[in-house]
Amino acid sequence: MLCLAATLHGLHARRPSILLRDIKLENFCITDEGALLCVDFGTAKLCTDSSVRKSYAPTEKYMAPEVDNRYSRPADVFSLGEIFAEIFCWMCKLNSATSLDVVMKNSTFKNKIARTAALKLLERRQPSDGRFRVLFNLIIKMLSENPHDRPLAGQVHDILRTLRSDYKCCNAELPDKESDDGLSSSPVENMGSDFECCFTDDSM
């Protein structure tokens, strides 16, 4: 998760920014050396008009609610939040391919009713000791209906850095911060500071 957030931040922090527009698990690969690669830039676009593009990614499953009208950096964050929700399923010992599809009735996170059902499932099935609470709250923010309420990719990375300190490859502070152009989200608040993470290397 940390590397995914760092990768997205690196693209968004460029000038002009790069919008991936088709974020899904299939577009991220891991090399034999353990490096994360982002592949398939066929739908990526440069942000040259206030970070807004009136077009959208072809994979409906990962679309943000607003992409029928515009596509901006918060839409990429929404799609990344869906990937995090799928990983969160695995962390809670759920099969995302069946559990989420069933509770969402084969709809997508773009659908508010289906999205709410999925988040309720994840909330019920997370460990009772609260060790995943901060991550769950972060996913909720990333999947906010209003794009202005979503964190920036760099803010997602900063939150994830607080969850484990021994993960080295992408744990450094990000050198460049994304500017808030009015379409990006407000800072993440109330995520909590007492989270003790016990993720495995496979989950982050």
UniProtKB/TrEMBL annotation:
PROSITE patterns documented for this protein: PROTEIN_KINASE_DOM (PS50011)
InterPro entries: Kinase-like_dom_sf, NEK_Ser/Thr_kinase, Prot_kinase_dom
Keywords: ATP-binding, Kinase, Nucleotide-binding, Transferase
Superkingdom field: Eukaryota
Name by which UniProt lists this protein: Kinase-like domain-containing protein
A GO term for molecular function: ATP binding
Ranges of residues in domain Protein kinase: 1-160
